[in-house]
Write a structure and sequence with these properties.
The chain has one domain: Sandwich (Jelly Rolls). The chain is mainly beta. The protein has a six-stranded antiparallel β-sheet, with no helix packed on it.
Length: about 110
Amino acid sequence: MHHVRQDQLPFVGSSHQFIGAEQGDVQASVFLLSAAPGKGPGPHRHPYDEIQFVREGRGRWTVNGTTFEGGAGDIFVIKAGEIHEFTNIGDGPLVQVDVHLSPRFIQENL
């Protein structure tokens, strides 16, 4: 078994980063996101699938040119290669658990 606390993980931008290869050598990595209002990543893509679990707040997503809004309780499956971005459109934090099906984050910013 491997154990780590969130506050021990690297914090970059708006997320704590669980890098599977460095945390028990697992085949998934996770962004523990807490984005302030108006914040979020610009257009990017990954060579693997990603699952986003929205825990709190509201956001606006664009995936392959289609824009939509979502909030707490929504789950989005973003397939490998899909260009996506999102922004917090609420008054409080946008909290997500973004699971990347890869032992390391691989992101191409566009």
